Amino acid sequence: MIEAVAKLGRGPVFLAGETLECSITFTNPLSASSTSASSEMLAWASAQIHCQFHASENRVALPPSDGSKHDVQAENETVFVPNRGERGQCILSTPPKILFCDLRLDPGESKSYSYCETLPIDGPPSFRGQSVKYVYKLTVGCQRVNSPIKLLRVPFRVLVLHGLKDYQCPQDEAVAPSNPFLEEEEGLKKDSRLADLATELLMAATSRRSLHLYNISNTRGKVGTFCIFKTVYKIGEDVIGTFNFSEGDIPCLQFSVSLQTEESIQEEFQRRRGQPVSFSTHARHQEACLHTAQSSFSLPIPLSSTPGFTTNIVSLKWRLHFEFVTSGESAGTCLVRGSQSEAVTWSGVEQIEVDTFSWDLPIKVLPTNPILASYVSQFSSANSITI
């Protein structure tokens, strides 16, 4: 028996274009003093990154794929198929890399191997929607002689930031002073520069603030105004907005704000013509606001959510969905005087005529630092299998 453990050193979240590093350790767990202890042999081990695409048959009409039969592997087959047994289609994969051939482990002995691969920068982001799914995995395949292949899968998350694809290293870095006593791999230097550039691009895009004012009105008149200072955010940020009802002609009884994603299938891949768009609510604020002059809300964008993106099959957009409940009467008739005595009391009416209407405000949501997103990731950095 051999135990194989694969561990992602930095965490399970990466930006497309970054270098994924994984340490894979093979161990013979038997003690050397055990009576049944013996050496264990593995013929080979290989690793590969792949992205699986799965679509709902009720929502998405995909063209037939010739490679859909390759996910089944016979027990005596010796071909490394990393997506064996996986649902959907493998739409992206890196070249397989051989970790070793003919590994021999004595009782209690272990050996570690390092796997490094640059994530394709033109791939889709990780996404689990109502219609489609994009799932990234690192698969390690290993085999004993005359035995079936065992697969160790390490799922991870990929964020895509547009603009990194055109990044090129400055030419003056080649002549920059360096410390000859410190060794640093070129891949790590490039990966660090890529992360720094991503941080700069995100800060530049999300730090711009300008006042956006919107008049809220229905067919009967003005209800109030809405103010927001920016419409571009990173996942993990809070969407903050304020309302001013003091200048409205129509009293607002209640409002709600929902932070939603809009998942739409491209027209050529829709199962039915004109099929509805799928909406998902990530945060919601509701408040009664009769006789309230000003109010505000704060909606957090979950770090586990997917930033907006577009592929040839699906498009994901973010929006703020507003719902307002207004009075059909004037503000003065919303209260009833209970007594004409010296101590005047007021009580709310039992019934009131209301009108409702909604409004949608598109916003843009970008990725964030992958290290920050790793803290709330559902994926584990270490996975193991027994061979």
Average pLDDT for all residues: 85
Looking at the structure, the CATH topology of the largest domain is Immunoglobulin-like
* Total beta strand runs: 23
Query: Helix share of residues?
Result: under 10%
Second rung of CATH, namely the architecture of the largest domain:
Sandwich
Instruction: State the name of the first-level CATH class of the largest domain.
Output: Mainly Beta
- Low-confidence segments: 67-77, 168-177, 331-336
Number of domains: 2
Distance from first to last alpha carbon: 6 Å
Count of DSSP H/I helices: 2
What is the beta-strand fraction?
over 45%
How does the major sheet shape up? 7 strands, mixed
Strand/helix succession: EEEEEEEEEEHEEEEEEEEEEEEHE
Shape: elongated
Radius of gyration, in angstroms, nearest whole number: 29 Å
The structure class reads mainly beta
3D structure, described in words:
With 387 residues, this protein is mostly beta strands. The chain has two domains: 3-160 and 371-386, Immunoglobulin-like, CATH 2.60.40.640; 207-330 and 352-366, Immunoglobulin-like. The protein contains two helices and 23 strands. The strands form five sheets. Strands 2, 4, 5, 6, 8, 9 and 10 form a seven-stranded mixed sheet that branches. Strand 20 and strand 21 (346-348) form a beta hairpin. Mean pLDDT is 85; it is low at 67-77, 168-177 and 331-336. This is RGP1 protein.
